[in-house]
Amino acid sequence: MWFKHSLKGKLSLLLIVAIVFPLLGAGVVSYRIASNLTEKIEKQSGMNTLRQLSDKLDFIINDIETMSVFIIGQRNIQSYLGSDRADISLYSQNVAFLLNLASSKPYISNITITSGRGYPALSNTTVLHSGLPRLLEANTADYNPAQKWWTPLYENQTTDDGIKRVFSLVRPIRSTEKFQPLGELAISVDVDEVQEMLQDAAWNANGRLWLVNQEDRIMSSQTGEGLNMPLGQSLQGLGELRGTEGVLNIARGQESNTLLYYTLPSLNWKLVGVIPTRIYTAQNEYVLTLTAVAIGVAALLAGALVLYFTAWVTRPLTKLARKLKDVSPGDPVKQFEVRSTDEIGMVLHSYNQLGERIERLKNQLQLNEAKKKEADIQALQAQIHPHFLYNTLSSIHWIALMNKDRQVAEMVGALGDFLRFSLNDGKEFCSVGQEVAHAQNYVRIMSKRFQDKFDSTFLIDPKIQERTMLKLLLQPLIENSIMHGLKKKQGKGSVFVHAELRGDGLSFVVEDTGVGMDEEKLLHLRSLLLAGEADEQRQSGSSNSGYGLSSVDRRLKLHYGSGAGLHIESQPGGGTRISFTIPVLEG
Q1: How is the chain split into domains, by residue range?
Q2: Which of 9, 177, 268, 425 has a CA that sits 20 to 30 A from residue 275's CA?
Q3: How confident is the model over 472-483, as pLDDT tens digits?
Q4: Which of helix, strand or coil describes residue 221?
Q5: Cα dihedral sign, 280-284-285-286
Q6: Residue 566 and residue 509: Cα distance in Å, rounded?
Q7: Does pLDDT of 354 surpass 60?
Q8: d(CA 173, CA 386)
Q9: CB atoms within 10 A of CB 432
Q10: Burial of 451 (0-12, 13-18, 19+ CB in 10 A)
């Protein structure tokens, strides 16, 4: 493996392992502590909510019981119930009293006093129908007329509120003087008000909350569902709720839940709440994600620091090893800055001395080789000096004229002009007129070589003669038309050269009447030009020759952009048309 061959790799791996594993261990411990703490906080928060809600309900219960004692002790109530006949005046005073008393308590649905002597009942509202009598008959085992009793749920219908679900405190009324039974008092609590209290209790939105009596029947719930039903029907698998408060884990369908309950101090009723475990499980996932991100960032930072410091410590050795491995006689030997006097510093110092010696020897050898090459080049240049070549061609030209051999004279003159323009003192650009003249000289030479094989026509817009363009663009295209189009044709052909100003560009076209190409060969040629491989295949002698066009296409794109490349059109037996457009250059 790579770290077996690298000191830096070994040190980096060992240090990273030594850092990452403790980080992972710390992360696991932190996650477990945080997840347990999250669950504990969620349960504690739920229990606190139940306690606060219990205090509110306990206040209502105590307030109603205190109110009942106050009502029973009222003199007018005692007088109305204890008189020998019904007194309409006392009736009206007591109804007004009950009305004022009930109006100050929004959770009281109605207050009803029943006379033991059959007098009209006293109430703060007109009761059209009451389910209390039937309820008392059905619960004779639990209800003792001589004691107070909190009833299960039942329905009342009044003129003020319509049909209401209520539960009531029922207690006997006795004479304060003789302690004999006078009647019965029932104070009804509006279940909707209790439901509103449950809804406002800030319980978890995904959980549920119930108020159940001593028989575990639902007295009120957040949603108003399941009233007067056993709590076990709403919570499958619910066992006995032992003690005054507690926490249980139960399964509700396929979902796991945490159940919390708390007993009202004034009654043996319980507040029961359910929280889906996925609530704090989701929080645990958030803690896990946060812990993982923190550990990941810490590991990355630690890894980066380890790699940095390891690289910093081993950098001199790494550089030295790389230089010794890749050293080549043709490369300059670089010197190392020695910053220490330890073993590494001594090795670097020795390497620098060796490098200096190698550089001196290499420079001496290169100097000798350069002097030799310079002499060879000067000798070669003396043999093929352009002026010598031009003068020789000029002499041949005049000899041919003196011998009245005009054909040879024209061919030699055209060759001299062709070579003079091709060299052109190394310049890359020329005028359009010079480029056309160079192409015409080439056509003259080729027409002498291939007599009666083709005609040529140059149609050049006079307005563009002095415009500047990249040189040696037309000649290779004309050569392509002659060598691969007209030469292979039976009979005589033609080559046409067009040049004109079109918009903001100079448009050039070289067209022949040669043998052309089929669709497959044309597509292959275009793909070669696109890949820049035509010249390479031509030079290697491939049968799928690129016709020497790639160099022209590459030069056009290099100097004028990708849009200035060659455009080739051809048909079998219909000739070939090659065109390109370049922008107008000033100067």
Answers
A1: 330-382, 449-530+546-583
A2: 268
A3: 899 999 999 999
A4: strand
A5: positive
A6: 10
A7: yes
A8: 140
A9: 21
A10: exposed
From CA 268, how far away is CA 212, in angstroms rounded? 9
Kindly report the length of the chain. Answer: 587
Compute the distance between CA of residue 304 and CA of residue 497 in angstroms, rounded to an integer.
66
Report which DSSP code applies to 489: S
Give the separation between CA 42 and CA 343, rounded to whole angstroms: 63
CA count, 13 A, side-chain hemisphere, 568? 27
pLDDT digits (tens, 9 = 90+) for 234-284: 777 677 788 888 888 877 666 778 888 999 988 889 999 888 877 767 666
Q: How confident is the model over 438-490, as pLDDT tens digits? A: 999 889 888 888 887 899 999 999 999 999 998 889 999 999 999 999 988 88
| Alpha-helical regions (H) of 404-563 | 406-423, 432-449, 474-481, 519-531, 534-539, 550-560
CATH class given for the domain over 449-530+546-583? alpha beta
Spatial separation of the C-alpha atoms in residues 272 and 290, rounded to whole Å: 33
Query: What type of residue sits at position 386?
Result: P
Residue from 476, 464, 475 nearest 435 by CA: 475
pLDDT value, residue 114: 92
Quote the CA–CA distance of 441 and 461 in Å, as a whole number.
19
